[in-house]
Each structure stands twice: as C-alpha cells, then as structure tokens.
Specification:
With about 300 residues, the protein is an alpha+beta fold. It has 2 domains: about 5-150 and about 295-300, Aminopeptidase (3-Layer(aba) Sandwich), CATH 3.40.630.30; about 155-270, Gcn5-related N-acetyltransferase (GNAT) (Aminopeptidase), CATH 3.40.630. About 30% of the residues lie in helices and about 30% in strands. It has helices spanning about 10-20, 30-35, 90-105, 130-140, 165-170, 185-195, 200-205, 255-265, 280-290, and strands at about 5, 50, 60-65, 75-85, 110-115, 125, 145-155, 175-180, 215-220, 220-230, 240-245, 270-275, 290-300. Strands 1, 2, 3, 4, 5, 6, 7, 12 and 13 form a 9-stranded mixed β-sheet that branches. A 4-stranded antiparallel β-sheet has the order 8-9-10-11. β4, α3 (about 90-105) and β5 form a beta-alpha-beta unit. α5 (about 165-170) runs antiparallel to α8.
Length: about 300
C-alpha cells in the first residue's frame, strides 16, 4: 500500500524526478522544487506530504500553503502535486489530496485554490494541457474559476543598446533610475503596500538576491515605479512583478525598467525570458515583442 508522511529535505531529488516525469510541460530542476517545498520562504512543513512505497521509495507528493494576506487568510492552496506516471490511477494522488484538505480545513481554511499562491508559486494555475490533472480536480469537486497566462520573449545583452542613455535622459526629466538597494526598501515597500501589497514578499526576495534583482524609478525620495526578476522561481529566467504609479503611466518609465531587467537576465546567459501571470498583455507585446505562451486554469473548492 505505502504510507503518507511529511516531506523531508532528502526527498528533493526524488520529488524532482517525479516532476520531470509527470510535469512534461514545465521547466524542472532541484532548486525550483526545493523552493516550493522544503526550502520555501513561506514554509508550511505540515502541508508538504510524500507518498512512499513499502521499500521507502517516494512516488508522489503534494505541497500545500496557507494564505498570508488579509484577502486570502481563510484560503488554502495546493502549490504543487505530482504522481509518478507509473503509479497514477491507484488512488495515491487522491489520498494525498484528501489528507491535505483535512489539514487545511483543520487550520481554519474555508476554500482551496490550485497553484495560484501569491507569495510563492510554481505556475499560476494548472496548464490546461494536463488533461489527467483537469479530470482529477473535477472528480474531487474543484471548479475552474478563471485563467492566467504566461508570455515569452527573446532576449540578448545587446538587444536594446540605448538603455544607459535612456537612464541618463530620465534623470534630466526628474526620474532617477537605479538598481535598488537596502536604502530604497522603505520607499519601495510603501509604494508596494499602497498599490500591490501581495507583491511585497516576492519583491523583497528579489532585493535579497546578489546583486539585487530590482530596478526602481524615483522622484525625490519616493519610488514611483519598479520592476523585478527572479524573486520567485529564482533558478528560471523569471521576470516580474513590475508596476508604475497610475498617474505616471505612458511616459516610458515602465518600458525602460522592463528592458533593464531583461538585459540582466540575458547577461546571465538566458536567451528567453518568462513573463508569468500576465496582466497587461499588450504592454509586453509592444515593448519586448513578447508572445502568449501558456494558459493556466485556476481551480477552487469550498470546504464544507
């Protein structure tokens, strides 16, 4: 039969191999799997569950999370669920899901959402091409509530060769463009809290990178725009989030910050950047020639 237990640090290689076999549309490496499980900055060790057989070999796992913001404080999440294809249709995934649901309900959660964990997500929903995954969720009472999208764009270190001159021109217009440091964090945190509080944790993690993977635009002591990269999924070519003060949109500030971040990703050796959970599709299509790449369905279930 096998047993269900909490995930351990030594499980990461096995979890990674399971994901490589089961999540064929996704970029998988040990670093990103660890970031979503045992090394998650929002650690929920009681919500990370592995299934192992009678020989102690891990064949499936589920990682949950709980909401940490006021608007999702009663919501639980399935951050990641994968079953070795050779072990599917044996009730293992169902057993893991039922145990996670029980633990989330016991902690006060009234609803469960699939994969769209604001503070630390792998992908912003279930890729609709995972047909077996869609059927699995429907069988367990989950309903699709909306869809999210990822975009891709080609990048190279010299794609936008006038960025440094644009930074200098922005200074003449009263906007200072800099790579953020700890000195900028208080102003950046105020800006995020006023407009996008759910992004604070991700941007903070980007600021903690070496070098900090956040660029900001300042007017005086105030941050009026920002763009970040690799605050989430640090081992992937992950752009975002970004935002500009509403009254200053349309002045090219956001486009400049976007391209500065993309240049940094290119300097790491990446040839394409992933732009996840996209809102302004047309903005990215215009300013970095990005195209729609993946579609994710978000499923939710009310806990009685």
């Amino acid at each position: 039969m096998g047993l269900i237990r909490e995930i351990r640090e030594k499980d990461v290689p096995a979890l990674t191999e399971i994901c490589r076999k089961a999540l064929v549309f996704d970029p998988i490496n040990e670093a990103v799997i660890a970031e979503k499980t045992v090394a998650a900055p929002d650690a929920f060790p009681d919500l990370g569950l592995a299934w192992e057989d009678h020989e102690g070999k891990v064949g499936a796992f589920i990682q949950g999370a709980r909401g940490i913001f006021p608007d999702d404080a009663r919501r639980g999440y399935i951050r990641l669920l994968a079953v070795n294809p050779a072990l599917q249709r044996r009730g293992i995934g169902s057993a893991l899901l039922e145990e996670l649901e029980k633990r989330l309900k016991a902690s006060g959660c009234q609803e469960i959402s699939v994969m769209d964990v604001p503070q630390n997500y792998f992908m912003p929903g279930l890729d609709y091409r995972y047909t077996n995954g869609v059927c699995f969720l429907l069988r367990h009472g989950y309903k699709m509530v909306h869809e999210n999208h990822n975009m891709l764009c080609d990048i190279s270190p010299d794609r936008w060769d006038d960025l440094d001159s644009q930074v200098r021109e922005s200074a003449k217009s009263g906007f200072e463009i800099v790579r953020a440091s700890e000195r900028e964090w208080p102003a950046l945190e105020r800006f995020l809290s006023a407009h996008w509080p759910a992004w604070c944790t991700e941007v903070r993690r980007a600021l903690d990178n070496t070098p900090p993977s956040v660029f900001v635009a300042k007017r005086g002591i105030d941050v009026i725009a920002f763009a970040a990269y690799q605050g989430n999924n640090k081992s992937l070519s992950w752009f975002g989030p970004m935002g500009t003060s509403p009254e200053l949109r349309g002045k090219g500030i956001g486009a400049l910050l976007l391209r500065l971040c993309l240049r940094e990703l290119a300097l790491q050796g990446w040839t394409q950047a992933i732009i996840p959970w996209v809102g302004p599709i047309c903005f990215y299509a215009r300013f970095c020639d990005a195209w729609l790449d993946r579609c994710f369905w978000v499923y939710r279930k009310q806990l009685s």
